Sequence to fold (749 residues):
Amino acid sequence: MDVWCHLTAFGVVTTPHGAKALMLGDPTILLNQLRSTLGKMEVALGAIVDSIVWTDEDGRIQWSNTTFDRLVNRQRFEVLGTPLLDLLCLEQQSQPLTPEEHPVNRVLHERLNVTGIYEFQQAETRQVLEIYATCIQFKGQGTNAVLAIRDLTERDRLDAELKQSKQKLSLHVQQTPLAVIEWNLDFEVVDWNPAAEKIFGYAQSEVVGCHALELIVPHAAREQVKQVWVELLAQRGGMRSTNANQTKDGRTIFCEWYNTPLIDQNGNLIGIASLAQDVTERKWAEEQLLHSAIHDALTHLPNRTLFMDRLEHAMQRAKRSTGDLFAVLFIDLDRFKLINDSLGHLVGDQLLVAIARRLEACLKLGDTVARLGGDEFAVLLEDISDLSGATQIAERIKQALTLPFNLNGYEVFTTASIGIALYTRSYVQPENLLRDADIALYRAKAVGKACYEVFNLSMHAHAVERLQLETDLRRAIDRQEFQVRYQPIVALATGAIVGFEALVRWHHPQRGLVAPTEFIAVAEETGLIVPLGHWVLQEACQQVANWQVRFPFCQPLTISVNISGRQFSQTDLMTQVSQILQTTQLAPGSLKLEITETVLMENSEPAIAMLLALKTLNIQLYMDDFGTGYSSLSYLHRFPIDVLKIDRSFITTIDTNSKNSAIVQTIITLAHNLGMQVIAEGVETAVQHTQLNQMGCEYGQGYLFSKPVSAAVITTLLTQQYHCRARQLSPHPQHQRQLSKAGKVLPGN
Ligand code: C2E
Ligand code: CA
Ligand code: CA
Fold:
């Protein structure tokens, strides 16, 4: 067989040893050897991916490897002897080849080596084949064609896929909102997508081949960025960062970068690929959020959180160094509520903003002014040499706030009280320093506002004492430690008792009798005044109702009860009063409620509504302490008030100070013009009595007539009066003495 000859010619005879065997050996052994070699060759040729096919001079297949058999999808016996043209119908650019064009014929007829790419359609599948065909001619034999056929279908598919995914990738790169930038190892731009153009403002043509880092990285950060990139290349890892960048039109933007080294298939570094996203808006929003978390929305000043943070830092610095001194100023506006209520919240807000700006102007760089809430501000003064450094600033702030504010066409005046606490090493917690500034502020308010006070330890003791008072006060209500005293109110012309003012007393188990001036303010601040006031009202109404029943001749006996600001702003005050009147069976006409001028002025609109409501119950209303608050005679007509009580401070000097006496006269006249009656408080001398009587003042109350006394003393007095009336006699001297032990004898009666 030809192949054998061929193999013999190629293989066996070429080996010297084999040649010896060929010539000398047994032909059967030789044949077996050849068969074995041929078998191996068959297997080997069948294992290669290319098809090999051998035809005779007529183009009939003489031999093929199994790869070819698989290609044409035939068994070996179907292949051998079949014309190759029948099994391998080829096309080029989808046009079937004519027999002459078929590579096997070209090789056999034209004796050419043919190389080409062909398509091979078989059933449903279409394959791309690269065919190398050559002719072989052995001596004395016809021409044979040998075709080596490589199936390119898979390669083409992969190529096509690769091409497609490259196209897709490039489309993504073109369309992505992320800047996709490629840099070479000199940090020059190699590629720059449309998003990069959009984000940074430079066209691709402007930057490719340039050191674009110098265009988009702010000058100060360039060296650092280069350094980071050098490290990135060294480590061959990706890296994320958020940086400030600059655009072509000079804007500063913030970009989030993801940079990764580019490595070719041989493992060599070739550059850096960067993805960048403009996160300016997000960063801005984050900054806004952070800002609003630590700043006050109205004034934009730092808020309490930031203030405490700075205070803590100041403390830490001061602890490390020896000389650093700093102080905290706690500032509270005096009567801000009045401005807010009278001119509205808008003006109130404008005032707070204007105050914030003035406070800032009083400070040096590095100091902090914060709004703690409402009308409370705090200042952290750093680097002061001594206390005077703080008091000078407090003085400056005080001065700055006294200038009027022009808000919405209103000229608004305000003052502030300031508490100062100076840092000492004994402070551990920043809160304590602020607390002490607050204690000092409390003192500043107590001594008359519009001033500053420096914290000292006695203030702390006082604050602790006050806290104790508060605790005791809470218990006192449950333990029934309160009593009501009654101070007669007298008709000045006749000296007859027309009623009493109920004044509360506290019998403290350790401290003895505590004056209301000491605890009413605390009760008011803590809200304890509500249950306490309710108890006083109940107790006093019950007492007077009892007296009225027991001493019918002494009618009309009335009772005045003090109503605090806190009580007055309770929405159910009406209900409480009605219930008490009902349970005590006291006629509403016998009850007078005393409300201070300040309470009425501070909430004028709701106050008027409440006064009108109380009037519907037929209760009389007294304006207490008149002259100590705003003394706004012009506002007086707005309030449905029956009686004005002129404050003791005017009465005390009425006999020695002509100016005061003129004021008192004006008040009395005005009150009468408005249909009100007048009670003078704190009448202590007969001269005052006479003078007030001459001025037309109807009633008086004071030590001249009686101090506030217990119900028992009043009962004795009323018993005495009752018997006098009953017998139409003047009071027995013994009874007069009883009353004089508690206070003064009632004159002229
Ligand atoms: P107020 O309502 O102005 O009561 C009059 C105060 O002047 C009483 O003081 C009384 O004892 C005192 N006083 C009366 N005549 C004279 C006088 O001739 N000379 C002097 N030096 N003082 C005189 P008190 O009882 O210490 O009460 C002080 C304040 O405490 C009261 O002033 C009132 O504002 C408040 N208060 C007393 N009891 C109550 C109460 O039950 N509820 C409320 N909310 N406040 C009360
Ligand atoms: Ca009173
Ligand atoms: Ca009073």
User: Anything to note?
Assistant: The chain is about 45% helix and 25% strand. Residues 501, 562, 594, 624 surround calcium ion (ligand 2) (CB under 6 Å). Residues 1-23, 729-749 have pLDDT under 50 and may be disordered.
